């Protein structure tokens, strides 16, 4: 039985396209599916890479997309011009705190250091009890398999509790990931 109602998902993902075009396609499909399910997309507000693809996928399907961007990154990240709601904040810390407030759960699509930093911070906040919102990695084309192995290794070596491990989920497609996060 589902316990958590997901009205808004914070999506963390690469500001770059990546090499394999299937990553962009998957990101657009995530935006579209969230929109079709009536779920608000909260993201970093950029227009490039997978970030832009998620936003465009959701907007094309009539979804609600909320961006949160630090003022200094409006230029470099090409702040998305078509968002109904774009919050301009001063710092990265404010961006992450606002995204955490606005979302019910967090998901990471393929991305780089920024993506990893953002999702891991939310996971660590959940473990510290700052919020009770779970994190999910969308394992497109096995991109996050090394991360899943690392989490298993942390658990195995006693640096992560089973409860902490239950706050982070891995699935290769979106619907099972959202189901897992509803139950986490
Ligand atoms: P990346 O996954 O490296 O392509 O970065 C994706 C997004 O993460 C970009 O919008 C960056 O602005 C953001 N980002 C990068 N570093 C950080 C950080 N330290 N804290 C929060 N967001 C970050």
Keywords:
seven-stranded parallel sheet, 184 residues, binds adenosine monophosphate, 7 strands, Rossmann fold
Can you put this structure into words, describing what you see?
This protein is α/β, with parallel strands linked by helices. The chain has one domain: 3-Layer(aba) Sandwich (Rossmann fold), CATH 3.40.50.450. Helix content is 45%, strand content 17%. It has 7 helices and 7 strands; from the N terminus they run E-H-E-H-E-E-H-E-H-E-H-H-E-H. A 7-stranded parallel beta sheet has the order 4-3-2-1-5-6-7, sandwiched between helices. Strand 1, helix 1 and strand 2 form a beta-alpha-beta unit. Helix 1 packs parallel to helix 2. The radius of gyration is 15 Å and the shape is globular. The termini are close together. The relative contact order is 0.17. Bound molecules: adenosine monophosphate. The site of adenosine monophosphate has 16 residues, from helix 3 and helix 4.
């Amino acid at each position: 039985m589902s316990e958590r109602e997901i009205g808004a998902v914070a999506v963390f993902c690469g500001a770059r396209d990546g090499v394999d075009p299937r990553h962009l396609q998957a990101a657009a499909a995530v935006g579209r599916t969230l929109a079709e399910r009536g779920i608000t997309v909260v993201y970093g507000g950029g227009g490039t890479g997978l970030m832009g693809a998620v936003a465009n996928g959701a907007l094309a399907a009539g979804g609600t997309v909320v961006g949160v961007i630090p003022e200094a990154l409006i230029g470099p990240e090409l702040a998305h011009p078509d968002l109904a709601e774009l919050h301009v904040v001063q710092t990265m810390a404010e961006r992450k705190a606002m995204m955490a407030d606005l979302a019910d759960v967090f998901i990471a699509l393929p991305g780089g250091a920024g993506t990893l930093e953002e999702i891991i911070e939310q996971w660590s906040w959940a473990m510290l009890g700052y919020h009770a919102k779970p994190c999910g990695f969308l394992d497109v084309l096995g991109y996050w398999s090394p991360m899943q192995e690392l989490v298993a290794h942390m658990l195995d070596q006693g640096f992560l509790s089973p409860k902490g491990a239950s706050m982070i989920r891995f699935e290769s497609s979106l619907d099972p990931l959202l189901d897992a996060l509803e139950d986490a």
